[in-house]
Amino acid sequence: MIKHIVLWKLKDFAEGSTKQQNALKVKVMLEDMRDKIPGMLKLEVGLNFEASDSACDISLYSEFTSREALDAYQAHPEHMKVKNFLPLVRTERRVVDYEV
User: Fold this and answer.
1) Is the whole model's pTM more than 0.85, yes or no?
2) Which residue among 26, 27, 33, 98 has the highest number of C-beta atoms inside a 10 angstrom radius?
3) Does the pLDDT value for residue 8 go beyond 90?
């Protein structure tokens, strides 16, 4: 099984919306991928509530059946919708992929 974790920090204001509004948009977009991506076993999205300079605003935790499923997810049209929007509203992105 592959675990894919991504953390984002968002701009205070971008694309006509506040950080909080964009965080909710991203959350909805990510959660909309659920049950649409072959090989995706689990998808969990969290919005940060801790006011800290070191905190990220959004987290994505997902599980995939294989590395091939993760690779297919990266190019899937549903993922591309989110992937194209995020650079417009984020300042930072961190990712880790690992196999268990």
Assistant:
1) yes
2) 26
3) yes
